[in-house]
Amino acid sequence: MQAEQILTAPAFGGTDEEQALAAELFQIYLAQGRFFSDGAPIRLSLLQLVEAMGKSQPRVRTWPRRIEEALSASPDVFAQEGSGDDLSFVTTRRGVSPGGSSGRREQVLTARFATPQPKRERPVRKAPVLAPAESIVIATETQTPIAPPIDTTPFEVVSVLPEPAPAVTPVTAQQIDALTATESEIAQAIQEALGSEAAVARWGDQWIGEERLQRLSRGDLRRIEDFIREQPERIATDVEIAQDVLGIRPNAADYASMLFAVNYRLSREPREFEYLGSATHGVWSLANASAIGTAKRKASEIGQDYRVLLEYDYSAEPAEEGLVEHILSYYEYTYGVLPFDANLRSIMPMPGFKDQRAVRITFESPQTGETVQAELRFPTGNRGGYIAGLETFYAENLIPGAVLTIEKTDQPQHYLLEYFRVSGEDRKLLALDEKKGKYIFRPTTFYCATQDEFVLSENRVPRFADQKPLDERSKRHPEQVIAAAFERAGENVQTSDDPKYYALIADLQAAANVERPIPAELLRDILVNDTHPEFSVDESTEDAFFYTPTA
To answer: CA 358, CA 126: separation in Å to the nearest integer?
Structure first.
């Protein structure tokens, strides 16, 4: 509770009229100095007092004379300073002239701090009392017996050699001749040398000292994780993360290094984030997020099927730079995939980090006007690479044997997927009845241009009807898949008891790629190799072969 100080009204001099006027003027002084201390002078000029009184009674012209007479009649309350136009009167909140005395001792805070206190008297320190010295007793030395003489016979010195340490295999850098090496060889040697340095950070083909990169706090990582989770596709680019989450402007001096830092720092958090970008364009998703692909076959099994690309990967002549033509096989149509062979590798993005699993890419179809999200999965030690996510697009627009063109665009990780539209055509095409687990021929109307050698119609391969797919064990052996292709697409030129099948290589390639990917190079290698005597070449017809089943 705040206590209010009660001030007593001072005694004014003069006539009753002058006393009343002096009391009214004193209230003006109190209002002016309401925040002053009790003894602080409150100074108002005669003109200020006239102006204050004129607000209540503006018609009185004798205010200057009356105010001067009233205040001059109380010299104990008001002190007069100056004269003429500079005339002013001074008083205090206690109603005492600053030069007068109220009988009370004035406490001024500044004076209390400015006046030093008297020094304290130091008591006389008594001299310390010394304790008497203790007597010291010196012990008497007793005679000790002399030790017997030491035997100086020399000992036999046996040298013990330490066991040799295992040899350390030195890490030797790749040595190249800078005068004769190509630019790619020099670049590869530099990348291998920098890749072994823990103090060097890498993203794509960019390198920087790790200590020079900005660091992300745990709070930054949580906000980035929440931001990615809020996105429709559960992915975000490094640009979106830098601008929307970290608040880095594109015109900032450290903008480029911040993009590098975002990609590198998030790559060090594999439990929370997964990199789906390329060597030049950063794209991030959450770890263990649902991958793009088919539900008909596991991603690991498709990778095992494409293992043949690690050994048989021969590229065809490209139609033009940045453009690849491809004929869709039955296997690719069924699982919505494309092989990551040498042709597609020439236009597809490169990984941004070592051991990167996949890259998120998009395909735009000018014929249908739709954009398809897909995933490029890179090869690993025993699995081949492939593109997944096109199953629905294939089923709605294409058939096995369709001719595709894939073109690279200026946008990173974005491609044009085109096919040639034709007038509708009706055929009975090969399909799998999943309920019965058998191949059938289903009436189909399609509007895409095809390569007839890869179209599996009833007129071409009628023996496929009611055949069951091969088991997984047989699919792992390409020679067994090719043998089944002879029986399904070939012609028995002998008896049913002693069969011998004849087929062209084009029919074999289309039929073999129903069960698993069989590149043309692998197919020809098995057919002409002496390690598989059940296959033989027809010398009379080009690209014709025989298959004789063994008992």
So the answer is: 90
